[in-house]
Give the backbone structure.
Amino acid sequence: MAINKIVYGGNVLIDLTADTIEADKLLQGFTAHDNTGEQITGKCKFDVDSTDGTANQAEILDGQTAYVRGAKLTGIMPDNGAIDEKISTREQEIIIPPGHHDGSGKVYIDKVEQQKLIAGNIKQGVTILGVEGNLKPSSSVTAQSKTVTPKTESQVILPDENIDYISQITVDAILYVETANSAGGTTVTIAG
C-alpha cells in the first residue's frame, strides 16, 4: 500500500496529494512518487527546452532533423562538399553558392594564367598579384604619330604595318565657314 501523506505530532511531514507529476512528464529512467504515493519511472524522452531555438530549415543540412521552438524540422540546406573553382580571366567572378561547404574547397588563379605572371611579362615598375615586373621596352619598338581628319562616320585609327603602337593622334579641326547668301542670310558650311 502506497502512502501519499505523513502527519506526525500534528505536523505534516510529507504530502504528495497535490503533486501533479506523471510518468509521461518525468524524464525517461528517473523515478519519483505520484500523488497517490506510488513510485513511477519516467517515460518522457524530452531532454531539452527548444522553445528559444533560432535555427530554420535553410540552416539545417538537407535531410537532417533538429528540434527548434518545440517542433521537429527537416533541413533543406544543400551540402555542397568541396567547391573548387579557377579564375581564368581578369573580369571573372566566382559566386559561392549558399549551403554547407566541407572546408576543403578553394578558388585559385588557373595554372595556365599563373605561368604567365612572371617578371619578364610585366612592365618594369608595375606589380601584378605580387609579381614585380622587370620588362624594359626594347629599342626595336617603333611608335607612330598620326593626324586624322574628322569624318561624319566613325573611324578606327590603327598604326601602320610594322609599327608597334601609336604614340599620338592629332585630330584636325572641323572646317567651319560662314558666307552671305542671296536671301540676305548666312550660310554655314561644316566640312568633315
Q: What stands out?
A: The first strand starts at residue 5 and ends at 8. The two ends are 119 Å apart (CA to CA). The chain has a mean pLDDT of 90.
